[in-house]
Every structure is written in C-alpha cells, then in structure tokens.
C-alpha cells in the first residue's frame, strides 16, 4: 500500500512547495524527520513560496522571511544566491521570535556568543540587506534584553540605533526594577565609542554626548518605590530630576 511517506523525498519537497503547509511535517514522525533535515537551499525555496503566496510588497519580503524559525544564516545565504533582493526602501524588522524565549539565567552571565547575538551580527553586517530596524515592535528587542540582564545584547542594540524611549521609557523602568544602576546609566547616557586625545598623545577619554532620553519623574518614582537609593541619587544629583508631589509623598 502506497502512502505519503513512501514517496521519494524529492517529490515530498515539491508537494510542500506547492502546499506551503505549516502543519504537514507535524502529520507524523517520518515527515517531521524528512523536513527538519532538509538542506538550507530547500528551506530558502520554501520561504520564497510562502512570501509569494502572501503577495506582500517586495521590500517586505525579508521581514516576512525573518519571522520563520527556519530562517537562519545558512538559509538566508542560500536565498541570496538564488534571488536578488533588489533595492529595499525600508529596513526589515527584527522579528520578536529572536527575543521572545530570552529568560534570566541563574548566574546572570551572558556572553557575545549567546543567541541571538551571532545571528544579529550577521544581519547587520550582511551586504545584501539594509540594517534591520532595532526599534521594531515598539522597542521589543531592547526591552526583553534589559528584562533578562543581557548586557552584551543591550549594548549591541544601542550601538545599532535602539532607543529606550519606547512605551514611556519601559526599558529604563525595567532596569530600575532590576536595581541595576550601571544598566540605567547605559540606557540613559550616550558615550562616544572613539577615544580622543590632544595631538594623539596620552590616554584619551570618551567624549560624553547628549543623553538618549531625558530622565522623568516617573523614573524617579519607580526608583523610590524599588528602594534603589543609588539610582535615586543618580537621577536627582547627576541628572537633575525633580520629584513631583506624588513621588515626595511616597518618600514619607
């Protein structure tokens, strides 16, 4: 008796390209094994078929593709070998899937090798696409990175244009809830990455630039509520934040 799984793998691949079914590989373990072991070139073809079916604008194709978990560096490389992405009028979005699974570690230690940083470095260095929008989905990426204390990721996103001002400065409020003064300072202050020294001699200091955001009474109120005294002093003494009546009452 002939069944679907008795068909040649090449024919199954063609069927899936025609069906673009998200559930076909969940039908049985055999199909799941066949499609999860498919090469990057086929996965790139599948993503193209899905985006063609959606009939989305050409400059939104990469945003759509990046939302699929199978869209990895190898798959994108295979895609760029087969198809010219053309001129993009707008940068692709950073998909939520890259950050949704981030959770706090027991030790709080994160490195530059932890996902999704290696893939992000590829996306921002890839010559075939414009640098993705680091503020996609109202700053979702930066907020998640702050919430779990992923400092290398926070620094990377800030260096590539992320702003902590989204949703009433939610990333900064999250850093205050963590009672992490260093993280709060990193989000608020903008430092020049290049060191300068007069006439090229001596050890130069990093030039301090304009802050990314203006500190607000809401930040101060959050610090007071969390009893983060070092952050309270930073906001009031260094940044000149003035307490409102609501904050003064909470300090009594």
Summary keywords:
252 residues; two-stranded antiparallel ribbon; 2 strands; 51% helix
Write the layout of secondary structure elements.
Elements: H1 9-19, H2 29-36, H3 40-54, H4 61-66, H5 73-82, H6 97-100, H7 117-125, H8 136-147, H9 151-159, H10 166-177, H11 181-188, E1 191-196, E2 205-208, H12 217-225, H13 229-238, H14 245-250
Antiparallel strand pairs: 1-2
The gyration radius over C-alpha positions equals 24 Å
Number of helices: 14
**Strand line-up across the major sheet:** 1-2
Low-confidence stretches: none
In percent, how helical is the residue content? 40-55%
Largest sheet: 2 strands, antiparallel
Share of residues in strands? under 5%
Shape: elongated
In sequence order, what are the helices and strands, one letter per element?
HHHHHHHHHHHEEHHH
Instruction: Give the tally of β-strands.
Output: 2
Distance between the termini: 81 Å
Structural class: mainly alpha
What is the residue-averaged pLDDT?
89
Describe the structure.
With 252 residues, this protein is mostly helical. It is 51% helix and 4% strand. It contains 14 helices and 2 strands. The protein has a two-stranded antiparallel ribbon with strand order 1-2. Helix 1 packs parallel to helix 3, helix 10 packs parallel to helix 12 and helix 12 runs antiparallel to helix 13. The chain is elongated and about 80 Å long. The model has no long low-confidence stretch (mean pLDDT 89).
């Amino acid at each position: 008796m002939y069944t679907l799984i008795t068909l040649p793998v090449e024919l199954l691949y063609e069927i899936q390209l025609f069906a673009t079914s998200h559930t076909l590989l969940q039908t049985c373990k055999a199909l799941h094994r066949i499609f999860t072991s498919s090469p990057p070139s086929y996965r790139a073809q599948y993503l193209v078929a899905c985006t063609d079916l959606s009939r989305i604008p050409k400059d939104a194709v990469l945003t759509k593709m990046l939302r699929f978990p199978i869209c990895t560096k190898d798959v994108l490389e295979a895609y760029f070998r087969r198809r010219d992405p053309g001129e993009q009028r707008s940068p692709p979005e950073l998909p939520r899937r890259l950050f949704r699974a981030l959770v706090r570690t027991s030790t709080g230690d994160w490195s530059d090798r932890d996902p999704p940083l290696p893939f992000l470095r590829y996306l921002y260095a890839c010559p075939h696409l414009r640098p993705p929008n680091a503020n996609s989905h109202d700053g979702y990426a930066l907020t998640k990175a702050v919430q779990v204390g992923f400092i290398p990721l926070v620094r990377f996103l800030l260096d590539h244009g992320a702003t902590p001002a989204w949703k009433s400065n939610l990333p900064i409020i999250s850093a205050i809830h963590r009672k992490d003064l260093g993280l709060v300072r990193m989000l608020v202050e903008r430092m020049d990455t290049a060191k300068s020294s007069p006439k090229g001699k001596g050890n130069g200091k990093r030039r301090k630039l304009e802050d990314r955001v203006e500190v607000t009474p809401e930040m101060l109120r959050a610090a007071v509520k969390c009893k983060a005294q070092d952050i309270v002093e930073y906001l009031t003494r260094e940044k000149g934040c003035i307490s409102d009546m609501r904050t003064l009452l909470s300090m009594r």
